[in-house]
Amino acid sequence: MAKLIVEQGTEQEEYALPEGTTLVGRHSANAIQFNDVTVSGRHARFVVDENGVSLEDLGSRNGTWVNEQPLTGRVMLTDGDLIRFSETQCRFEDRPEGVPAAGVGSETVPAVESVAPQLNVDFAEADEDASRIMDVAKSTGRFESLDVNPEAKLKAVLDLSTRLVGSMDIDSLLPAILDTLFNVFKYADRGCILLKDDASGQLIPRAFRHRRAEEDATVRLSRAVVERVLEQKEGILSADASTDDKFLLSESISELKIRSVMCVPLLGLDGEPSGIISIDSQNPLGQFTHDDLDLLTVIAGQASLSRETARLLQSYVAKEKQDNELQIARDIQHALLPTTLPTVDGYEFYACYESAQAVGGDYYDCIVLPAGKIAMSFGDVAGKGVPGALIMSRMSSCVQSTLRHVHDVEAAMLAINEHMCDSAVEGRFVTYVLAIVDTVNHRVSLSNAGHMAPMIRRADGTMEHFDDDELVGPPIGVMEDFPYDVETRDLGPGDTVVIVTDGVDEAMDPDGELYGQERTYEQIQAGSSRADELGRALLADVRRHANGRPQNDDITIMAFGRTANA
To answer: Which of 172, 210, 347, 424 has its CA 20 to 30 A from that of 262?
Structure first.
């Protein structure tokens, strides 16, 4: 049914246009009365018949206008036409029930009040884009322009801040920003927020809003305007084909589409645009002004800040969760290490482990075997952090399950290597030393899979290495069926075997100077004949060298041997 929509400020009033004649004017006798002193008493009339709906001016003092063209005779109306009786603005509608208002552009994404990242945007290209840039406002992303109309801007910023305070959910934050904009800009009909995709850099629609549920839920965006907003980092006020001279009296307002559009950038903390906010108005009384653009630019600055804050909060919460999980992983990893070392008359055992990160890839174990034998297991996974820790945990399980049944060094090395090769991860291997100490016959049998040569500090201070070329084989998990050699040496009273990872040699001081193998050798040689004292002294000297510099690799030290009075 045909009807006339009268604009009264931000309110609207509808009048049905029944078949026949309907008079409009200032007098109360008219079917539609306007409270506007500039409107004549009997201003104009609508005629509804089988031909449609027509409008005729009745010689009014200040005139009647249709689509901004003066009405000099009688004209047939089309759905969506804008009518102005002197200063009173109206809109004519004539469409079946349930059919939305005339479309508003080539943008075909629904303007729903929810996040919709899966939708795509089809921008108006140059050959179909009738947008005209009417004004420009430089955007800094913050509040440098508060000196102009500060009261309105400050109120808008405070309202937005209050609404968004503490919000971490960006999906709910973006629609809330649009809600605030619609409260500030009473004539806004549609609004949208588009954000850049981190991977592709393309603008993705993330939130939409339209004021009236029955209206067409589409948004028009000019590619030229959006590109300028992003490139120049400035807000733009534009008008489209409704201001073009080619639209004459015969042109329906339904073809005029959006009348006024504001588009501003969302600038990140680095000053670079991360997206845009666009709002438009179809209301002829609601043409946006420079002050509106200036205000939207300030609000966009606060919106950007709120979004960045939400992202930082999300990152902080995720980091806290990750840290908690890493702490749990650290506790689990330390639980895989022996809580106590064996107590054997005439022998001492020492081991320490300090990871460069929350978890690490170094490993040691001490397993008591039958017949007075003790297995000393020591390894360094290629890599640090979580990947190294995962390999380390698997190595620990493999060694323990093997040594429950195999008490010979050569056979155990073969079994451990085969197991790790079966499910090896490319680029992940373990340099490894397995030593079995015979505390009855006082000797140590040792095999080396690509690790730094273990050292023996004899009671008289002389140094020996397990560095025979034939002894050192490839790291565990590299070559299947490799026959690792074993070397056996006697242990006299006061003799101590020392094994370290490369985190000791490669420890750096603040100037980047390495601790080095030579200093490691000298520190062990000058150390105590007691295993625990020797190990603690070496660790303390490494820390002194680092002088507060964070370690860049895991540090593990193992020392064992006979006491001097054994």
So the answer is: 172
* pLDDT at position 108: 33
* Phi, psi dihedral angles at 471 (to 5 degrees): -75, -40
Instruction: Write out residues in the chain with pLDDT < 70, as ranges.
Output: 8-11, 96-157, 159-171, 212-220, 240-259, 284-286, 358, 424-427, 566
pLDDT of residue 163: 62
Residue pair 435/412 in contact (Cβ under 8 Å)? The answer is no
Read off the amino acid at residue 133. I
For residues 531 and 142, what is the distance between their CA atoms, to the nearest angstrom? Answer: 64
DSSP states along 56-78: EE-S-SS-EEETTEE--SEEE--
Tokens of 311: 């992202």
Structure tokens at 507: 């420890």
Residue 484 neighbours by CB under 8 Å, 6+ apart: 410, 413, 414, 417, 447, 448, 449, 473
Residue 259: other Cβ atoms inside 10 A: 23
CA distance 326 to 336: 15
* Res 350: pLDDT: 96
* Sign for the pseudo-dihedral over CA of 512, 515, 519, 521: negative
Q: What is the pLDDT at residue 106? A: 33
pTM of the shown model: 0.53
Q: How far apart are CA 302 and CA 299, in angstroms?
A: 5
SS (H, E, C) 233-274: CEEEEEECHHHCCCCCCCCCHHHCCCCEEEEEEEECCCCCEE
As a whole number of angstroms, the longest Cα–Cα distance in the chain is 127
pLDDT of 489: 95
Tell me the C-alpha distance between 25 and 6, whole Å: 12
Give me the pLDDT at residue 500, please: 95
Contacts of 252 (CB under 8 A, 6+ apart): 67, 78, 79, 80, 81, 102
Is 449:417 a contact under the CB 8 Å cutoff?
yes
Going across the sheet that includes 455-457, the strands are 347-354, 555-562, 496-500, 455-457, 463-465
Task: Give pLDDT, residue 223.
Answer: 83
Residue 315, helix vs strand vs coil: helix
- 206-322-352 Cα angle (round to 5): 160
